[in-house]
Write a structure and sequence with these properties.
An eleven-stranded mixed sheet has the order 16-15-17-14-13-36-18-27-35-32-33, sandwiched between helices. Helix 4 packs across helix 10. Helix content is 33%, strand content 21%. By secondary structure, it is an alpha/beta fold.
Length: 748
């Protein structure tokens, strides 16, 4: 969408102070991410202020790409030649003001969707039911944040029949801003409960705030509307909904109810409601390739968004687009090819059917779009693993969780993200890249080899090696990894390695034992440390840290004892050193419980995955990991028949069991046998029956069919739930999922 605004009008819309105004010129497009800029002509760059980074840091990069118009919160100390600055109090609010102005120009109504769950699915199904009868435009993917809604509105063309916008909130005050931007004519409230109410004090406050969006709407549809629907035509059409599980049936009924407000729907269209992959899915491919599966839809807006994701994911890597497109859409095809060319995509292929010869994909990032069936066929040829049991990691939830922790940290407190043990099983490189993108300051690994992998992948943030072994000292030095030193002997060995490598002022971290009695210097050794450090120019202390033994028990007196010991020891060290040293003692649990002990940095691990023992804290986080499988076979068995090894369990009634291809070799614990654990199939809990085998389990599943999806961890059975059933902790579940289980990564 081209805005086509004169410079003077643009400045007036966003209430900007302008020291000098060009004599002519127009604003056609906006950008906030320099990686997505292909041409700076008639484009304005919004220097958005983030929790850790300022958009001002990227002004020069945007300038190099030809941008000359910049919306900033403060003027640069050295203005660039022939650049024009629009100074505003808040750059995000300025972007929202521009979006609100554009919304008022639209010649058609806007439908808004909000709610804790189901927004994207219901939005896409409404679109499916109304097109091509109506010209419907909607926000791409889950663009529903303060930034995403503004960008979505700015993408809407001036002429059409209906616009559909998602809206999501995480704290009080946000919905008012979204409502002013969207000004919805109609509203859908997708759910009336709050599984993740973020920073709201209660579920009721969250629901009440959601309803602000619909205050001036002509009509509102919510779950109570669906439950009270007494319409024979609606119920007749609803019989065509192709899903059996409660959640998808509920979402489909809401989509149908809303669509009928605008146009008649056919039973055939309802029966073909697509199973949506609402988010971009990253899959490990053959020969080092990364496959980006996006069969979401194939309009220009969605294609442009997918190309943006490809470019930001594949920096300095070769990029490829493979798209299955119907023969009857030559005009769309030419526009998609043009977008590929404009975005400097090295290779792109548009096929009507599966080609005989496929391109080479060595180390490429490959975007796959278009026909779902053909895309799945291509993925089956190119994906590295074919195990039907998969673990998915939701990077949008990961970014959300980091933002939630940033809310409780002091502005100057840094974040060290733990990525040891293959990032708790999530995949070291995949997770680390996302963490760096979110603005974490440090990464923490267990051993030097993990740090080397990060460096070889181009990750340049500081890396702390917590278990720095003497055999790995040379690798620490060669790859600029910062070792944790825990004893006088360990310190002496590392200094000797630095002398051999002719290194000076190398950063190290001192591990203190304040009472947990694992690795670490004792309080009695502080004076010796000071004497050695003062005499050895080879090392400088970057940080001093310790670990709370009872961080998950905030009232335990051990915490106060350790915190006092840590303060006393670090005060002694800091007083003796001629430079400032960072201090950190809090992990994910401690960061929420002991704000007074944040010091200079906190170490986040399990909290990044949305897990916290305090329900109040966990309600503000989102689960990152889900674990799913499928049914290999169904069997109808008689009462009294035994199941599995040792006949340890017998059926107490005639029933159906399902055999699922996941076992203890995959990480499904053997102590979940004989009904002590289970899975969810189509929203129904199905307990195990018989012993968990190495490669499979059997569960009681009277309502299942072969097409049913099996949830091991997900909305119905959380990571914490499963770990409690297995009598272990979430850490062990995360890290014990076998490498043979395929990992996929999804992102909005």
């Amino acid at each position: 969408m081209k805005l086509d605004l004169p410079i003077s009008q643009f400045a007036q819309i966003i209430n900007a102070e302008v020291s000098s105004m060009p004599s002519s010129g127009r604003i056609q497009q906006v950008a906030y991410d320099t990686r997505l800029i292909t041409s700076g002509e008639e484009l304005v760059f919004f220097a958005l202020q983030g929790p850790q980074l300022s958009g001002l840091e990227f002004v020069s990069s945007a300038y190099e790409k030809g941008v000359r118009y910049f919306v900033v919160e403060s003027l640069p100390s050295e203005p660039l030649n022939d650049a024009y600055y629009f100074k505003v109090q808040n750059s995000l609010e300025a972007l929202q003001q521009l979006a609100a102005f554009h919304r008022k120009r639209l010649e058609y109504p806007v439908l808004a969707l909000t709610g804790a769950l189901g927004k994207t699915t219901i939005k896409e199904w409404i679109y499916h039911l109304l097109t091509p009868a109506l010209r419907v435009y909607r926000s791409p993917k889950s663009y529903n944040s303060q930034l995403g809604v503004a960008l979505s509105l700015l993408e809407l063309p001036l002429v059409g029949d209906l616009g559909i916008i998602e809206a999501a909130i995480t704290k009080p005050g946000e919905m008012e801003r979204l409502a002013r931007m969207i000004c919805p004519d109609f509203c859908v409230l997708t759910s009336l409960f709050a599984p993740f109410r973020h920073e709201f004090a209660s579920d009721e406050q969250y629901i009440d705030t959601l309803q602000i969006l619909s205050q001036n709407s002509r009509w509102v549809i919510d779950p109570t509307t669906i439950e009270s629907t007494d319409n024979s035509e609606f119920e007749a059409l609803a019989k065509a909904i192709p899903f059996n599980d409660h959640i998808r049936r509920h979402n489909a009924r809401m989509a149908l109810r809303c669509a009928l407000e605008f146009h008649q729907c056919s039973a055939n269209a309802i029966s073909q409601l697509p199973v949506l992959a609402n988010r971009l899915e990253i899959i490990e491919g053959l020969h080092g390739a990364q496959l980006i599966n996006d069969t979401y839809n194939l309009d220009l807006t969605a294609f442009r968004a997918a190309l943006s994701f490809l470019k930001t994911s594949a920096i300095d890597k070769p990029k490829m687009v493979c798209c299955f497109i119907p023969q009857a859409t030559p005009t769309l095809k030419s526009k998609l090819i043009q977008l590929c060319a404009e975005n400097s995509i090295e290779q792109y292929y548009f096929w009507e059917e599966m080609p005989t010869d496929l391109p080479l994909l060595d180390h490429h990032y490959v975007l796959i779009k278009g026909d779902v069936t053909l895309s799945e066929q291509l993925l089956s040829k190119w994906r590295r693993k074919s195990h039907s049991t998969t673990v998915s990691y939701d990077f949008s939830a990961l970014h959300h969780n980091i933002r939630q922790y940033q809310q409780i940290l002091n502005p100057k407190t840094k974040i060290l993200a733990m990525v040891k043990a293959q990032a708790y099983g999530a995949g070291l490189l995949h997770l680390a890249k996302q963490l760096v993108k979110s603005g974490v300051h440090y990464l923490g690994v267990a051993y030097a080899d993990e740090g080397v992998l990060l460096r070889e992948a181009g990750i340049n943030v500081p890396i702390l090696v917590l278990n720095a072994e003497e055999k790995g000292f040379d690798r620490c030095i060669a790859y600029e990894l910062e070792p944790a030193i825990y004893s006088l002997t360990h310190l002496d060995s590392f200094i000797r390695a630095l002398i051999a490598n002719q290194k000076k002022a190398f950063p190290i971290h001192l591990k203190l034992d304040t009472g947990m009695h694992r690795l670490g210097f004792g309080p009695s050794e502080i004076q010796q440390i000071i004497e050695i450090i003062s005499a050895q120019p080879e090392v400088v202390i970057k940080s001093i840290y310790s670990h709370l033994a009872c961080a998950d028990e905030p009232s335990n007196p051990m915490n106060a004892l350790q915190l006092a010991t840590f303060k006393n020891c670090t005060d002694q060290l800091q007083l003796a050193l001629p430079y400032v040293v960072h201090r950190h003692i809090l992990n994910s649990e401690g960061a929420a419980y002991f704000p007074e002990a944040q010091y200079d940095m906190v170490r986040l691990g399990i909290g990044l995955f949305g897990v916290h023992l305090d329900p109040e804290v966990e309600s503000k986080l989102k689960p990152v990991m889900s674990w799913k499988s499928h049914i290999s076979q169904l069997k109808h068995l008689k009462k009294g028949e035994c199941i599995g090894y040792g006949c340890s369990d017998r059926l107490n009634a005639d029933t159906q069991i399902a055999i699922i291809p996941v076992g203890y070799a995959d990480g499904f614990k053997r102590n979940l046998s004989n009904g002590k654990g289970g899975v969810y199939i189509d929203g129904e809990f199905c307990p195990t029956i018989g012993r968990v085998c190495m490669d499979m389990i059997m569960v009681v599943a009277p309502k299942a069919n072969l097409q049913s999806e099996v949830e091991i961890i997900g909305p119905n059975q959380t990571l914490t739930n499963l770990s409690n059933q297995a009598q272990t902790i979430p850490y062990e579940i995360l890290t014990s999922i076998s490498p043979r289980v395929e990992r996929t990564y999804i992102n909005d």
